[in-house]
Every structure is written in C-alpha cells, then in structure tokens.
Amino acid sequence: MKANPKDVLTGVYYIDGDVAAGYGALAAGCKFIGGYPITPSTEAAEAFARVAPKAGALFIQMEDELGSMASVVGAVWAGVKSMTITSGPGYSLMMENIGLGAMMETPFVLLNIQRGGPSTGVPTKTGQADMMQSRWGSHGDYEVIAISPDSPQEMFDYTIKAFNLAERYRCPVMIMSDECVGHMTEKVVIPPADEIELEPRRFYKGPPEEYLPFKPDPDLVPKLARAGDGFNLYITGRVHDERGYPVDKEEFKMKYIRRLVDKIRINKDKIIELKEEQTDDAEIVVVSYGISSRVAVKGVEKARSKGIKVGTLRLVTVWPFPDERITELAKRVKAFVVPEINYGQVVFDVARASHGKANVVLVPHGGAGVHNPDDIADAIEYAVREDKKIEGVVEYKTRLEKLVFEGGYKLKE
Amino acid sequence: MENLLRMDRMPHIWCPGCGIGLGVTALASALEKAQIDLNNVCIVSGIGCTGRVAGYVKLDSFHTTHGRAIAFATGIKAANPKLKVIVFSGDGDLIAIGGNHFIHAARRNIDMLVVCVNNFIYAMTGGQVAPTTPLAAYATTSPFGCVEPPFNIPYIADSSGAVYVARWTALHVRRLTNSLTEALHKKGFSVVEVISPCAMYYSRINRLGDGLDMMKFYHDNVEIRHGEDTKNLDIGFQTKIICGKFVDKERPSYMERYNQWASEVRGASNES
Ligand code: SF4
C-alpha cells in the first residue's frame, strides 16, 4: 500500500529530527496523536499539530502522559493509526498504558526523545538511559520493538517503518531517539507518496460473528477490527482468551501471554535491521545505536588509521536484540566495544549473547553530552591489546570519567 | 435487555444486594429507549467492581487501566466522532486515580456519557477509604472514621464544564433510566452519578444492614430537587441525599470546535 499524497509533504527540507519524525508520522498515515509537552520532544508534537488539520488528522494535548498513552490505545481501537511523543519523566508515566497496549495487542508508535535522567535529570541534554525501560518498563511479560535512528533523515524514514512494524505485529513500537538526534538539523528528503510503502492494517474481513480478536494467524499475529463495525468487541487488559474473555487459570495465562512474547521472538529475523561495516575480518566490532553510532564513526576512523581492524555493527533495531548475530561475531572477533550514553544497558545483552567468546568493553557516558570520539578510539586500542579473556563487562575509563573521579570527586562546580 | 448483555459471561461477579447491576439495567433500558444504532455505541470501563461493567455489556466494550477510562474514551471519540461513547466506572476509578482525566474531559467538553457508580468505598480491593467516603464513615483504611471530606461529584462535573449532570440512587431505576436516555442524546460531556449500595463492604463495615436496608434508607432519605445548585449536594454519613437533574445546558463540544477550526485552516490554505 502506498502513502496518501495528502499526508506526504514531499520536498527537500532543512529540519531537525523532531520535526522530521512529526512529518514521518503524517506520511505514515497517523491520524491521531495524544501527547503532553516535554523537553526535548516538543518540536515533534508541534510539527504534527501544525500539519494535522490539512491531512484530516488531530493532535490533542492531553492533561498528562497517563492520559496521552491511554488515548492513543483508544484511538487505535476506533480505527486510526496513532502515536504519542515523550521523553524521560513522561515515558515513565506512560508505562502503565504501554502494558495495556501490549496486552490488547494494539499497534501504536511511541517516540521517545531521550534526555538525561533519572527523574527530571538534565531536561535539555541528551541520554540513552531509557533503553532497558523501553523493553521492560511496564509490569508483566511482553515484547516490544524498539528502533534507534541517528539522523533527521532517519527520524523521518524510521517513523514510517515504526508504523509499518506496529501494524505488522500488532504491538507497541518505540522510536528510541535522543536529544541530539531530535535537535540536530540536517537535510531531510521527503519522497513523493508513491515511493513510500505502508503496511496496511490487518483488518479481519470475514463475518462478524466468527471474529476472534485474539486468534492468531500462523505467524502468531491476530487480525484487528475496530469499534463501530458490529463486532461487539470485548477488549480487556486482563489475561484473555481468543474471544477476549478474561481467564485466570495458569495454563491459560501461559498459553496467551506466551504468544505475546513469541510473536516477536519467532519473527525476529524479519524485524531486526542492522547496519554492518567491515566486520568480515574485524578484530574489534563497535556495537552502537542512535547518536552514539554517529559519534563512534570518528573514533573508528582513528583506530583504523593506526592499522587496527575495526568493524561496526549498528543496532537500528535494538529490541528484539540480535543475539544470533552477536554470537556469530563473538566466535571470531577479539572484543566488542560498546559506547552508550548510560552506565551499561545494551552492553549487557552484547555480553550475554557473546557467551564469553569475546571480551566486551563498555565505554560509558553519564549523559548530558556525547562521547569524545578519542575515548572510543582508545577503548578500541585497549581492546585489541588485551590478550586476557575478561569475564563479564569491562568498563573503559574515559577522559571525562578520569577528570571527574580521579580528583576524588573534587570537580569545581 | 438480554440482547444487550453477554449472556455467555453470566453469572456476573457482583454480590447479592449490590447496586451496580441496577445501574446496568437502567443503561440497557436507556439504550433501547434512546433508539441509537447499537453498532455505533462503545462502552469503556476502568478498574473496580463497576469497572467490570464493560465486560458484561454486549457493545464494543473496553476494560482499560485503573483511572484511564475517560482518557481511553477520548481517543476513541477523537478517532471516530460518529461513535457514541459511554464510560461506566466507579467513584474511585473516575474521581480519585482518574480525577484529572475527569475534569479535563469536562473542560474540553468531550462528547461522552460518564456513568459514575458511587458506593462510597473501594469495594474490589476490600473496603478501603475512597474520595467519596462520607466524613466519619468507617472503611478498612480509616478504621477510626474517615477524616477527609468527600468530593461532591456533581459539583466537580458542573464546575469543570459538564453540560448534563444528574444524580440518582440505585433505587430510582425509572428516573435513572430517563436521565440516561436524555444524557445519551446530549452533545457534550454528561455525567450521571448513581449512588449505589455496596452490601459487602460499605454497609457491613458501617453496620448499615444489607442491600435492602440501604435501599430503604435511600427511599426514606432521598430528596429530589431538580435544578439544585450543585454546591449544595454534599453527602454526609447517613444524611439526606439530594437527587435530580442539576445541569442541562449547551456548549460546543471538543470535536465541533476542532472541526470548525480545522475547516477554517483548510479553507485558508486552499485560498492561498
Ligand atoms: S463488593 Fe460491594 S460494590 Fe463490589 S460487587 Fe459486592 S456489593 Fe457490589
């Protein structure tokens, strides 16, 4: 299915990542955004609100993030593609109804422009510390898809992809961006509508009385319906059977919740997108995502100029995690170097999937800034020199960490 | 009536003497009387004893998270304004944890009917104090008598902008049905409060007898005062309860305003 020309602002723009995501949502056919303003994500909501009326779409500024997320789940069940936009503290508030969306198998997109946390943290500066929350933040077992763009162009392109994945797998899809990408201004090319491929909603087409809202197709994803079409839907946040009726027994809980997890896991290969460079004969592979993968480029170049064989593996899709690829690489590389703007999140999945076959070096960053590429280069050098097998994750001490901590926390304010 | 219930989910979970079922009966009759195409009606509930209503009514029904029914329903209404949206939930769900959504949906005048069953207590979790528990009434978490003044639901609804506000008890099924029928035809945020006996917790903890005794109490202590100023509708412990229709006014709904504005925006951009 092609995008609707009415929704696509074809042209060449010089805009920031937030705005590009807003335009991407519109191009994907998003007709409803329920949101609550929060730095540094507001430009995305503003961009959508400006262009929505012409496309017959609606932006409503809800009273809080709990309401925003709930309104999005409601809007999807009324038949339209929907999204919400947030950052750290708002993301925490959304967890409740992200779980509802996962349980009701509701396709929606959530754009998180990550900032420094915890709590109010550093509202105006970057971070990548919500990565585990995007996977496990709501209570109970479920799987989501999370993708991490690294440029305004990708914010446009991957917002569309996020909608396509949500529709395809009937699940929440998180765009885990960050302040740097959100506020970075670059050229963005919006193609004509007939060059944008959209995944149509998997609407059930048979007789209403035979419809089971949670009866899976062979790929484990059930067909969707919408309110108002005579289905007498019963959709609940409780564990439910294929009709949608609540069930309590442990064997049913097992059966129905297992599928929420499995529908993502068995379709992993179709979902995961990776960008790999020069990994064929690499000794070291830098694994990164989002803004850190842009910053890493310079560090990798520097290490290569010293003759080190470094490859890069960029996690465009962070969740589900590409275990198999990491395991394969671990058998033949010496180490993985993982720069992320947190004190270790995705790196532990890299370590888990390496099964002790390769060393795993975390290059941490506490947030409110990005890595110094020289630190990434030095971490690569360290990793190639290190001949011992190191258990678990080893943390590379960056220049900034040394400056802050080696003076015994005596940093002048 | 039966065609409006999911008979395959019976028996329901409500205790004997509970008033929630009477509220459901009134809604079912109102839907019949209002002659609305039932395919266009959605019902949304939150969590709690009353939160189970959506699951027993044979409409497009959504049993959502605690407190979020109105926000969920706002999304439904915005996405498909043709749908008639009913939120059916309890006082704790709508006024405590969901209080913020309640006042803001009223302020925006989102076109929906909110039926709020008020039984003065958190029943599903076993009788804890609610934002509606009358002063001095007992609850498991106010074992020495409630020290917090309760909310007056019609007053909150009215002062936040609701276009239709009424209160009845579970005893007044006929009048309640009439109010619900009227409210179903109303454009905008309409609130009908249903004072209802919780025979299991509220009346037991407060030694008020069973459901029938509560009904008797309503019979003897309800005063009907249509058009009463909503400021005067506080409910004390075993004091008289004022019922009636208090607000019935017109105000542009959210979607009416949005669509008008959106068509102006589209018109202006077509001219340029
Ligand atoms: S606990 Fe109270 S409110 Fe709940 S079903 Fe029983 S009587 Fe009704």
Automatic annotation (TrEMBL), chain A:
Residues 24-244 form the Pyruvate flavodoxin/ferredoxin oxidoreductase pyrimidine binding domain. Residues 282-363 form the Pyruvate:ferredoxin oxidoreductase core domain. GO terms for molecular function: oxidoreductase activity. Coiled coil: none annotated. Keywords: Oxidoreductase. NCBIfam families: PRK08659.1 (NF006412). This is 2-oxoacid:acceptor oxidoreductase subunit alpha. It comes from candidate division WOR-3 bacterium.
Automatic annotation (TrEMBL), chain B:
GO terms for biological process: cellular respiration. This is 2-oxoacid:ferredoxin oxidoreductase subunit beta. It comes from the Bacteria. Keywords: Oxidoreductase. The lineage of its organism: Bacteria, Bacteria division WOR-3. Residues 55-194 form the Thiamine pyrophosphate enzyme TPP-binding domain. The keyword Nucleotide-binding does not apply. GO terms for molecular function: oxidoreductase activity, acting on the aldehyde or oxo group of donors, iron-sulfur protein as acceptor; thiamine pyrophosphate binding. InterPro entries: 2-oxoacid:Fd_oxidoreductase, THDP-binding, TPP_enzyme_TPP-bd. PANTHER family: 2-OXOGLUTARATE OXIDOREDUCTASE SUBUNIT KORB-RELATED (PTHR48084), 2-OXOGLUTARATE SYNTHASE SUBUNIT KORB (PTHR48084:SF1).
